[in-house]
Amino acid sequence: MKGSGTSGIIDKVINGGDGRLLQYPFFYAVGRKAVRCGLIKFPYKATTMLAEYGLGQMKEVYGQKKALAWSTAFFPTELFFAMGIVHFSPEVAAAMAASFDLQSNLLNEAEKRGWGRDSCSFHRCALGGSLLDFFPRPKVFCAATHLCDGAVSLFNNLSSRYALPLLLLDTPVKKDRAALQYVVRQLESIITSLQELSGEKMQHLKLQKAVLYADQARQQLANVNRWRAHPLSAFGARDALAYLYLYFSGIGGKRTPEIYKTLAHELKQNLEKAATAGATPPRYRLLWLHLPPLHRNNVLAYLEQKGARVVFEEFSHAYWEPMDPEKPLESIARRMLDHFGHGCIGQRLQAVKTMVEQFDVDGVIHFSHWGCRQNCGSVNIIRDFLRREGIPLLLLDGDCIDNRNYSPGQVHTRIDSFLEMLS
Amino acid sequence: MQGSSREETGIIYWLCSYTPVEIIAACNLVPSRLLFSETAGAGADIHLHATLCSYVRSALASLLNNSEREPWGTVILNSCNAACHLHNALSALFPQKFHHLLDLPHHKSDQAVDFWAGELCNFHKALARFQGIEIQTVKLLEKIALYREYRQRLADLYFQRQGDVTVRGSELLRLTEDFMQLPLEHFKTVLELVEERAAEGKRGRLLNGPRLLLMGSAAGRHLAVLLEDLGGVLVLDDLCLGRRGSCFDLEPAAGEDPYHYLARLYLSRWPCARMKDGFSNLTQLEKLLQDYRIDGVILNTIKFCDTWYYLGQRLKEQNNHIPVLVLEGEYMTSDICGQFRTRIAAFLEMIS
Description:
The complex is a heterodimer of chains A (423) and B (352).
Chain A: H1 7-15, H2 25-36, H3 45-63, E1 68-71, H4 78-83, E2 86-88, H5 90-99, H6 103-112, H7 121-131, E3 140-144, H8 149-162, E4 166-169, H9 177-198, H10 204-228, H11 237-240, H12 244-249, H13 255-276, E5 284-289, H14 299-305, E6 308-313, H15 328-337, H16 345-358, E7 363-369, H17 373-377, H18 379-389, E8 393-398, H19 408-422
Parallel strand pairs in A: 1-2, 1-3, 3-4, 5-6, 5-7, 7-8
Helix pairs in contact in A: 2-3, 3-13, 5-7, 6-7, 9-15, 10-13, 10-15
Chain B: E1 11-14, H1 21-26, E2 30-33, H2 54-66, E3 72-77, H3 81-93, E4 98-102, H4 110-131, H5 137-159, H6 169-181, H7 184-201, E5 211-216, H8 221-229, E6 233-238, H9 243-246, H10 258-267, H11 277-280, H12 282-291, E7 296-302, H13 306-318, E8 324-329, H14 338-351
Parallel strand pairs in B: 1-2, 1-3, 3-4, 5-6, 5-7, 7-8
């Protein structure tokens, strides 16, 4: 939602009262109405749909009329959609808080209570939100172990603190038959527990539908990415940021494929217009690894100002194989195991290579988010790999949420040097 | 890098105390835990990011500096992100060596036991193939029995500490380190010596001072020595280099498949913070504190180890009865920093 012409008004509304307004369902209802009536405008119709959808979900989260589950970023959301359980991802909420410049209060609260700054700021922010009761209290915590130790530890901590159950989906790093079966069996147990905790029944047909939507989302996201790969596509990482919400919280929902489909259609139309208007491609095409900083910064804007566009980012990669609604749990399990960042580094390297080729990039930027062991840990291997492939790489250290160490001058200097090298 | 004079044909280095050492031993290899190297850090930072914990970086440095001494390979568990990255780095740096990544579950459900049993079986096959030998179930059963015996004897030494203490805790930690590094026939000699001394010690000088529990992941002997030098009595530890990683047992069921047994054994032991039960187990800690009449708890976390960090925070909040000191720092070396000394001294003064 950032970047719209009305962002100043939104800021004033949200930040007045330290963002407390965000805790009331009516805020989202009003926001949704404003989006629907066109009072808040977005550059794409799909983004408008996304905003409406997101606000609707947040209204449900704070409405607390249904059972609420907190889920880590990589937990399979298909289960929630199938069971009608409202879910809330504190990591996504941390990202949204940062985009509205609300993260400082939350980080401060965690730090005030003795939480140090070496841990991931997504989780510190989530913790602060929880300690302040800024985020709604769930009935259950749902965590998946893949990719991130911090999220599991955070949920384990919160589960112990609030004496609430933690449902843990253990995701092996291997992708063989045994691993798949192990995940499937756990999903069955988790469904049973969720039914008991939420009082909602899992209907097989709804689960099949959720998987169908997840598969349609994959197809439509692949379509979006196909148009984004076009040399004249003006849809870069800055525009794509908002769609992270769908990527992490919307897989399995009915609206998700519709939004991606609308976006693909708009991108196609825009490309036709661009070709007719004689648009020129950016001077440098770049791939972004990991997430970009989500707090207010001008890194992506500065790149564009210098003639370089981040044409694609890792967390828009449609990584999972086709899903079969006839085998819903197996399909979900496979999607979990297919994640490019999971398992041995070979899987991520292969994904990077695929993205480099598909988007025909001139260089890669790896953003090493402070506190992310998973992402930072493999940076040296990625560097060596890209060197062998002859792809220039810029390693940018920073923090996605915490802007206290953000130093625009330093970042600009490094970007300038990198672009000079590309030329 | 200890234990060079060995009958076996090589060493398999391991990092996480959930590693099924019985399988390695059954393949005529010496399982040896990667511990601190005096040259740690040298060279490792080029390959592993600085925000990965210093234990993992030290382990890599250790191998980088000793890579040509004797035949070796590694088995790394997906215990944490850092361990997985270590496996990636080792595979890239030493492609000709044997490297195996074992998928350790995060909980101990039936599904997890079945899955882990399959993993262990596959690991045995891979290691036997690497060694060019046939799998001998009898040999595996022998090793299981042998390790059970030694673990039981170590557990007895710890159990005795519920009463008065005459053997220093740092000596026990030295013993558990040896258990993790030496071939068992060498370890046997060391163990017997300590057992003798413990038996004599019952008539010997009692150690006086605040009774302490040292918790954490890979905190080492050097920290234990410091606690003792400052006047504390290290009665018990909950360390993967100590009691947690070496004192666990389980009765095999009649006719139970050895891999299934090993899976149950390892998953049912006192959990690491990384496991789902790691946090809920904090409630059981209370009983341990009473049984061993503990006056204070010291938790040592390695910088950038998320799992133990989050557990440490919870421990601080939860434990209202016994004073807790949380020390965060680099993987311990003999060169312990002054800050630790000051903080421990103040803590001991407070609880004395």
